[in-house]
């Protein structure tokens, strides 16, 4: 990419009026995904390259999508499995395991046609991770029951805003006990740490999902959890029964964070930001994060 776009054309502060116009055109009408907003919060320059210029890194070798494929596979099984219980009581663990095995066999065999020793090991490992997920979820349900899966909001559905910022997204699962909601997002690997929640302006997903679900479904959200398939663990990210995590404070905080992002975009602020993801960034070779930091 650096061979196509000269470094001299990518200033650190980006004061160009043309760039500002590119940014603010239809800004009030633009629909943002949570991923886009988190990308800007992490590094405005990466957002600029990825979502405004729509550039993609050139791959010397075919891209390895193993993690993405696995993540989609786990999501698909969880979606189909939980859909079975949206309108009926939870079964016994034995019956649930039987349902899970039926879905797993159909989806796994539909993707993998080889019957090698390696794939058999992969099959057993994957199913073992799913069994652990099932047992963990079953133990945690309590009075809650599956309510919605892969629930989409925003573009093409009901318009959703926080302040004047239009949003779109999809929540993996929403449970209800009849009067309260609990949200769950699936991750293949690590999930964000809730410690220092109100000092973290990058992990926006769960608090935004909480606000949207409560707005549209007219039930208060009590818990927001992450589940890691690889770790086999369920992590509580938001618990609104705790005084510090009440809805009003979370809404005010997120509204403030998103408003500041919009203000910076409108000003054409796309300076690169040094962060832990820098070594893995597609735009590392054309980034001037070090120069930007030195200028400050």
Q: What's this model, at a glance?
A:
The chain is α/β, with parallel strands linked by helices and 296 residues long.
Helix/strand-derived class? Answer: alpha/beta
- Backbone CA Rg: 22 Å
How much helical structure, as a percent, in the residues?
Answer: 40-55%
Strand content: 15-25%
Number of helices: 9
| Stretches with pLDDT under 50, minimum 5 residues | 1-15, 60-65
**What profile does the largest beta sheet have?**
7 strands, mixed
- Regarding quaternary structure, what we see is single chain
Q: Give the end-to-end Cα distance, rounded to a whole number of Å.
A: 26 Å
DSSP E strands, number: 7
Order of helices and strands: HEHHHHHEEEEHEEHH
Query: For the residues shown, what is the average pLDDT?
Result: 84
What is the overall shape?
globular
Q: Which SSEs are present, and which pair or pack?
A:
Layout: H1 17-24, E1 31-33, H2 34-42, H3 44-52, H4 66-83, H5 93-111, H6 117-141, E2 145-153, E3 160-162, E4 165-176, E5 181-187, H7 205-217, E6 221-228, E7 233-239, H8 247-266, H9 289-295
Parallel strand pairs: 1-4, 5-6
Antiparallel strand pairs: 2-4, 3-4, 4-5, 6-7
Helix pairs in contact: 2-3, 4-5, 5-6, 7-8
């Amino acid at each position: 990419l650096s061979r196509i776009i000269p470094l001299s054309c990518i200033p650190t502060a980006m004061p160009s009026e043309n760039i500002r116009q590119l940014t603010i055109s239809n800004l009030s009408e633009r629909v943002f995904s949570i991923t886009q907003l988190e990308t800007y919060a992490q590094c405005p320059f990466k957002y600029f390259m990825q979502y405004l210029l729509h550039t993609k890194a050139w791959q010397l070798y075919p891209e390895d999508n193993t993690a993405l494929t696995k993540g989609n596979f786990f999501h698909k099984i969880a979606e189909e499995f939980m859909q079975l219980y949206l309108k009926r009581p939870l079964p016994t663990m034995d019956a649930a395991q039987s349902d899970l095995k039926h879905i797993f066999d159909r989806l796994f065999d539909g993707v993998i046609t080889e019957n090698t020793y390696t794939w058999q090991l992969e099959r057993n490992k994957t199913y073992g991770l799913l069994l652990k997920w099932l047992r963990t979820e079953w133990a945690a349900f309590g009075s809650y029951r599956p309510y919605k899966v892969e629930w989409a909001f925003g573009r093409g559905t009901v318009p959703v805003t926080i302040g004047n910022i239009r949003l779109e997204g999809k929540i993996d699962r929403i449970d209800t006990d009849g009067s309260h909601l609990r949200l769950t997002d699936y991750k293949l690997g690590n999930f964000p740490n809730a410690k220092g929640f109100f000092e973290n302006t990058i992990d926006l997903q769960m608090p935004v999902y909480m606000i949207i679900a409560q707005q549209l479904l007219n039930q208060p959200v009590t818990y927001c959890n992450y589940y890691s398939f690889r770790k086999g663990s369920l992590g509580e990210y938001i618990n609104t029964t705790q005084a510090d995590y009440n809805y009003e404070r979370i809404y005010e905080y997120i509204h403030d964070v998103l408003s500041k992002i919009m203000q910076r975009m409108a000003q054409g602020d796309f300076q690169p930001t040094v962060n832990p993801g820098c070594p893995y960034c597609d735009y590392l070779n054309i980034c001037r994060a070090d120069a930007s930091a030195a200028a400050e």
